[in-house]
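Saturday, quiet lab. Running sequence design on the structure tokens for the scaffold JK sent over.
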């Protein structure tokens, strides 16, 4: 005998497929949507449909956009001699928020992870190398995450790009602003010492 109506079970099942949403949270969200006004639920459904229908990948940098090429690739004020390589589209958003970078981007859509079966073929590596051929790129900034997968991806890309004679840089690592030395782990503190700069 079914205790929960099938439509609710279906919504709970679909919501629980989302990252960070377990069965209990999915259940709370489903019941919240059930209690919400019909217009609110319809607006959410329409927004999700529009997301899938209108959002595409930029043909140049592979960032998510409504039109290709995206604003960042088509912008005449962007420095085409620099390409910042990131793992995910959200990384572009984070770097753009700083207002410090005016070059172009390349989104890999992941990082190398043999355990999860993610190799170079699953990432936009071939497309990156293709961009480095005809474009007058002077510097590639590897802005992968400072973890095992990000470091492996960075080392792999370095081996592929070095023979092209392009300058390769990596984001600096170190202590966060407002952080205390006593709370820093050994790796972070070591990176801060190694990447110290003249004052």
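Result came back. Writing it out in full:
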């Amino acid at each position: 005998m079914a205790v929960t109506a099938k439509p609710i079970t279906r919504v709970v099942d679909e919501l629980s497929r989302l990252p960070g949403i377990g069965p209990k949270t999915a259940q709370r969200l489903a019941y919240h949507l059930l209690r919400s006004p019909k217009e609110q639920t319809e607006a959410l459904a329409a927004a999700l449909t529009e997301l899938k229908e209108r959002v595409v990948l930029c043909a140049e940098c592979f960032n998510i956009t409504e039109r290709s090429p995206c604003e960042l690739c088509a912008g005449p004020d962007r420095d085409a001699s620099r390409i910042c390589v990131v793992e995910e589209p959200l990384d572009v958003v984070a770097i753009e928020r700083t207002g410090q970078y005016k070059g172009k981007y390349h989104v890999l859509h992941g990082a190398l992870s043999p355990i999860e079966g993610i190799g170079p073929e699953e990432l936009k590596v071939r497309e990156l190398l293709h961009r480095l051929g005809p474009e007058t790129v002077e510097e590639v900034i590897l802005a992968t995450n400072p973890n095992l997968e990000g470091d492996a991806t960075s080392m792999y890309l370095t081996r592929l790009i070095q023979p092209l004679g392009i300058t390769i840089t990596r984001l600096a690592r170190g202590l966060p602003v407002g952080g205390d030395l006593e709370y820093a782990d050994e790796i972070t503190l070591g990176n801060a010492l190694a990447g110290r700069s003249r004052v």
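Notes for JK: The longest strand covers residues 79-86. The chain has a mean pLDDT of 90. Ask whether to fix the surface positions before the next round.
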